[in-house]
C-alpha cells in the first residue's frame, strides 16, 4: 500500500508539473505576441513622426492637414472644442428608451446606467458628450498626483487594467460593492482597447467620479492615448456605436484622457502608477508637469521642444535674439519682437510670477509666428500650471525631460536583475530592477509600489522583495481561462488583501462531471488558441523563415536539423520563446531528427489559406501587415468616417513622396486614388485599401 501511494503521488506530481509547464509555455506565447504587436505600433508611429519632422508643407492647406494628422486632440482651442462638441444642440427623441442623465449626477443615475448596460442599451450621444464635458471640468482641477487617505474610509480598493471588459467591472462591484462615501476606489489606467465595451466602462467610471469625487480616483494608463486607440480598437468601437456623433465623442475623450492624473499616493506611503519607474523618475517633477500638453505620450514633438527652450531662456533672462543673433531678419521685420514691460519688484512674488508668465507667453507667441505654428489650446490656470508658477526658484525642465517622465511611468516594467535599461520588448519605457525600486522608496519614504500594465496569471504578483505589486483586473485576457482578474484592498495598516475572480460564463454552466476535468480542458483550449496565434505568426514570416532555413541548408537538401530549426525561427521572430520545448506542438516528429522545412511551411499555408484562394505568398504579406495597414488607414482617415477622402489621400501621398523622393504631379496622384476607388463612390474604404495593397504585391 505504501509503494502504491508513493507511485500515485509521483505520477500526480509529474502530471501537475506537465500541466504547469504547458500553462507557462502558453502564457509565454500570448505575452510575446502581445509585446511584439506593441513594438510594431511604436515603430509605425516613429515612422510617421519621422515623416512629419522632415516634411516642409508648401501651403497652409498642407500645413493644416499635417497638424491634424497627429495633433487632432490639440488642434482645438478651449472655446472651439466646446463649440465643436456642443451637446446642448443635440435633441433626445421621444423614441429613446435608454437612461437619462441630469447634472449634477446622483447615485440613482449610476444605478440606472449599470442596469441599462447590463441590458445592452446605449446611452444617447447628448448625455455622453455632457458627461465628458463635466468630467473634463472636474479633472482639470485635480493635481498630477492624487493624495488619498484611509482615514476617511475603511479601505481603499485598487483595480488594474480593465481593457473594455465590462463583465469584470460588474463582478468587482458585485463582490466589493459600488463606490460610496465609505468605499473608495482607485482605477489604475487602461480602461479601454482590446475589449468590446470600453466606452461603457468609461461612462460608468466617469459617472462615479462625478458623484463621488473624493472616493473615486482614476490614473492614466498607456492606452489612454488616441494614437494607441487607433490600433487596439477603441476608436473603431466609438465610431461603430455612434456613427453620427462619434467624431465629437472621440475628440472629447482625447481631451479628457490628457487630463487624467498620473499617479495616486495612499497615506503618503503607497505609490500607485500604471507602468513603473526608472532611475530618473522624479515625483517632484511629475507633480509640476502640465500633463494636458501630452495628448499622446508616444510622441515627443520637436517643434514644441523649441518653444519650451524659448520659455527656459526667457525665465533665465536670455532673449531669443541673444541666443540666436543670426536669426531670420526677414521674419523679424514681418513679426516685430514684443518689448517686455517693466519688471515689478521681486518682493511681491505673485505679481512677479504673473509678469514672467505674460512676458514668456508674448515671446512664445512671437516665436510661433516666426515658424508659423499656432497655439494648440488657450493657456489657463489649472492646478498644475499654478504649481509651476508658485515655484519659480525651482529648476526648469525641457519638454523632452517631462515627456520621458510620463513615458516611463506609463510604459515601464519591473525586472529581477539590478539596474535600469530600455524596454526593447515593448518598445517604450524601461525595465527597472530592485535597486531602482529601493532608491525610489527610500527617497520618498514609501513602503511599496502598486502598478498594473502586465497581465498576470493569478491577477496579481509581487516582485522586488514584495516592494512592487502588479495588479491586473481583466480576467480571461488572452482567452477564456487564460488568467484570473484581481483587485487589492488596503486598510489603515496598508496590508494588501487580494480578491481573485474569473468572469467566465462558460464555467458557470458546467455540470459537476465537467467541472472535474475542467482545468485540463481549459488548459487545452487556451493552449490551442495560443498555438493557433503562433502558427499565424510563423506563416506571416514565411519568406524570412525560408531564407533563415537555407542558411543552415548549405547543400540545398531541403532539410535541416530540429536544433537549427529552433535557432532559425527565433532569429526571425525574436519572440524569446523556448522553441525546442514548443517544437512537438509545431513540428511533426521525425525519425532521423531532420525537418523538411518546405513541406512544413506548406502545411502552415494550408492551415491559413482563406476561402478566397489567395496565393500563399500574398496571404503571408497580408497576415504580416494587416494590423499596420489598418492603423495606417485610420491615421489617414482623420475624421474617423471609415472612409479615406480623395483630399486625405492626396495630402498623405505628398507626405510619403517627400520621404521617398518620388516626384508625382497632382494629376498623377488623382489618377492613383481613382484607380484605388474600385466602386467609384469618391472615397476609399478599408477593403479597397487592402485590395490595392494585395494587387500591388501580386504584381510584384
From TrEMBL:
Co-factor(s): Mn(2+)
Which GO terms of type biological process are on file?
detection of stimulus involved in sensory perception; negative regulation of MAPK cascade; visual perception
Q: Which family does it belong to?
A: Belongs to the PPP phosphatase family.
Q: Which reaction does it catalyse?
A: O-phospho-L-seryl-[protein] + H2O = L-seryl-[protein] + phosphate; O-phospho-L-threonyl-[protein] + H2O = L-threonyl-[protein] + phosphate
Task: Specify the species.
Answer: Pedionomus torquatus
Q: What does this protein do?
A: May play a role in phototransduction. May dephosphorylate photoactivated rhodopsin. May function as a calcium sensing regulator of ionic currents, energy production or synaptic transmission.
Q: What is the name of the protein in this document?
A: Serine/threonine-protein phosphatase
Which top class of enzyme applies to this chain? hydrolase
Domain (EF-hand) ranges: 540-575, 624-659, 664-699
Give UniProt keywords alphabetically: Calcium, Hydrolase, Manganese, Metal-binding, Protein phosphatase, Repeat, Sensory transduction, Vision
Q: SMART domains under this entry?
A: EFh, PP2Ac
Q: Which CDD domains match?
A: EFh, IQCD, MPP_RdgC
Amino acid at each position: 500500500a505504501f509503494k502504491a501511494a508513493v507511485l500515485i503521488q509521483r505520477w500526480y506530481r509529474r502530471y501537475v508539473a506537465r500541466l504547469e509547464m504547458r500553462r507557462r509555455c502558453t502564457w509565454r506565447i500570448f505575452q510575446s505576441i502581445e509585446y511584439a504587436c506593441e513594438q510594431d505600433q511604436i515603430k509605425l508611429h516613429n515612422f510617421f513622426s519621422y515623416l512629419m519632422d522632415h516634411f516642409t508643407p508648401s501651403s497652409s492647406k498642407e500645413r493644416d492637414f499635417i497638424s491634424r494628422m497627429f495633433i487632432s486632440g490639440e488642434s482645438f482651442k478651449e472655446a472651439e472644442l466646446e463649440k465643436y462638441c456642443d451637446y446642448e444642440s443635440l435633441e433626445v427623441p421621444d423614441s429613446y428608451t435608454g437612461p437619462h442623465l441630469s447634472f449634477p449626477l446622483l447615485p440613482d443615475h449610476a444605478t440606472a446606467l449599470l442596469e441599462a448596460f447590463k441590458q445592452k442599451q446605449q446611452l444617447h450621444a447628448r448625455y455622453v458628450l455632457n458627461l465628458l464635458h463635466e468630467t473634463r471640468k472636474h479633472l482639470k482641477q485635480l493635481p498630477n498626483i492624487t493624495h488619498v487617505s484611509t482615514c476617511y474610509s475603511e479601505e481603499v480598493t485598487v483595480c488594474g487594467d480593465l481593457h473594455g471588459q465590462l463583465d469584470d467591472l460588474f463582478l468587482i462591484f458585485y463582490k466589493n460593492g459600488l463606490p460610496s462615501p465609505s468605499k473608495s476606489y482607485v482605477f489604475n489606467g487602461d480602461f479601454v482597447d482590446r475589449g468590446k465595451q470600453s466606452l461603457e466602462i468609461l461612462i460608468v467610471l466617469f459617472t462615479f467620479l462625478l458623484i463621488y469625487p473624493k472616493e473615486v480616483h482614476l490614473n492614466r494608463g498607456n492606452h489612454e492615448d488616441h494614437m494607441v486607440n487607433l490600433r487596439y480598437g477603441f476608436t473603431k468601437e466609438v465610431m461603430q456605436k455612434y456613427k453620427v456623433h462619434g467624431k465629437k465623442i472621440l475628440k472629447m475623450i482625447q481631451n479628457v484622457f490628457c487630463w487624467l492624473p498620473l499617479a495616486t499616493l495612499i497615506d503618503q506611503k503607497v505609490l500607485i502608477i500604471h507602468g513603473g519607474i526608472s532611475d530618473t523618475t522624479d515625483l517632484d517633477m511629475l507633480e509640476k508637469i502640465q500633463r494636458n500638453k501630452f495628448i499622446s505620450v508616444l510622441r515627443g514633438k520637436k517643434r514644441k521642444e523649441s518653444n519650451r527652450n524659448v520659455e527656459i531662456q526667457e525665465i533665465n533672462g536670455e532673449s531669443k535674439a541673444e541666443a540666436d543673433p543670426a536669426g531670420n531678419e526677414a521674419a523679424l521685420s514681418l513679426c516685430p519682437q514684443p518689448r517686455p514691460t517693466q519688471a515689478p519688484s521681486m518682493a511681491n512674488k505673485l505679481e512677479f510670477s504673473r509678469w514672467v508668465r505674460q512676458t514668456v507667453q508674448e515671446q512664445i507667441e512671437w516665436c510661433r509666428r516666426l515658424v508659423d505654428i499656432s497655439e494648440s489650446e488657450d493657456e489657463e490656470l489649472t492646478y498644475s500650471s499654478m504649481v509651476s508658477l508658485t515655484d519659480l526658484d525651482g529648476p526648469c525642465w525641457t519638454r523632452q525631460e517631462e515627456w520621458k517622465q510620463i513615458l516611463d511611468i506609463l510604459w515601464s516594467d519591473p525586472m529581477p536583475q539590478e539596474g535600469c535599461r530600455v524596454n526593447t520588448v515593448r518598445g517604450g519605457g524601461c525595465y527597472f530592477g530592485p535597486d531602482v525600486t529601493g532608491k525610489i522608496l527610500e527617497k520618498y519614504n514609501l513602503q511599496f509600489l502598486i502598478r498594473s500594465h502586465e497581465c498576470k496569471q493569478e491577477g496579481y504578483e509581487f516582485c522586488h522583495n514584495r516592494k512592487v505589486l502588479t495588479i491586473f483586473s481583466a480576467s480571461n485576457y488572452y482567452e477564456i481561462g487564460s488568467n484570473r482578474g484581481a483587485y487589492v484592498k488596503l486598510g489603515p495598516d496598508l496590508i494588501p488583501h487580494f480578491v481573485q475572480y474569473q468572469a467566465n460564463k462558460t464555467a458557470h454552466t458546467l455540470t459537476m462531471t465537467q467541472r472535474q476535468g475542467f482545468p485540463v480542458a481549459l488548459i487545452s483550449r487556451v493552449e490551442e488558441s495560443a498555438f493557433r496565434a503562433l502558427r499565424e505568426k510563423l506563416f506571416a514570416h514565411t519568406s524570412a523563415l525560408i531564407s533563415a532555413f537555407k542558411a543552415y541548408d548549405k547543400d540545398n537538401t531541403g532539410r535541416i536539423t530540429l536544433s537549427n530549426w529552433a535557432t532559425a525561427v527565433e532569429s526571425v521572430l525574436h519572440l524569446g520563446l523556448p522553441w525546442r520545448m514548443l517544437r512537438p506542438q509545431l513540428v511533426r516528429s521525425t525519425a532521423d531528427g531532420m525537418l523538411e522545412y518546405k513541406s512544413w511551411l506548406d502545411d502552415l499555408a494550408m492551415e491559413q489559406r482563406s476561402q478566397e484562394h489567395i496565393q500563399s505568398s500574398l496571404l503571408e504579406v497580408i497576415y504580416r501587415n494587416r494590423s499596420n495597414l489598418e492603423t495606417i488607414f485610420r491615421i489617414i482617415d482623420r475624421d474617423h468616417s471609415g472612409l479615406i477622402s480623395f483630399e486625405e489621400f492626396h495630402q498623405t501621398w505628398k507626405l510619403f513622396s517627400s520621404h521617398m523622393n518620388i516626384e508625382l504631379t497632382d494629376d498623377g496622384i488623382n489618377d492613383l486614388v481613382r484607380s484605388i476607388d474600385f466602386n467609384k463612390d469618391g472615397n476609399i474604404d478599408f477593403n479597397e485599401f487592402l485590395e490595392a495593397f494585395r494587387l500591388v504585391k501580386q504584381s510584384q
